[in-house]
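Example (one chain per record):
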Amino acid sequence: MNNLEAFNQALFLTINGTTSTPVWLIDVAVLIGNDLIYLIPLLLTGIWLSGDEKQRSAAVRACFVALLALGINQLIGLIWPHPRPSMIGLGHTFLSHSADSSFPSDHGTVFASVALTLLFEGLLWTGGSTLLIGAAVAWARVFLGVHFPLDMLGAVVVACVACALITPLWRLGGAPVTRSVIVVYRKLLAWPIGFGWLRP
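Predicted structure:
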């Protein structure tokens, strides 16, 4: 075992819950680590429905960054599959999960991708809040035993790479892509838009 992996496992054991952990704390961690991911589609939908074209562009861009980052995760998992703590009998697991590669964390990647994109687009409060929630999710998933701490660091690195790859492409084609999505949105939801229930 190399030094980095030894550090990763030691840090995991420091954060991971134990058999003496209060049930209420485990329940809170499950809520954070398992369910807060659904805030991301709600957040992006809210930005889209309430925002101007610049904010809508940020929401669409965040989707592209997150999807690219998740694709990179899949490639990493195929090339270098890293076992989850439960797969090597380390620590305690309080959340069921498939026995696939742990590195990088998909949950962490989605939060980091969306948060970084929103911050780069100038949506500082929304992006900062997303980053803080993502940090809580990262803690919870390590605490619950389904990820190592470095899985979360890897998620941030992958999100940064995806942001860097999307940025030049977005400068070239982001505006027409956003306008095309707006056109489709206005056609599909013309009825509620016409009644003033949704922003055109």
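Caption: Residues 49-190 form one domain.
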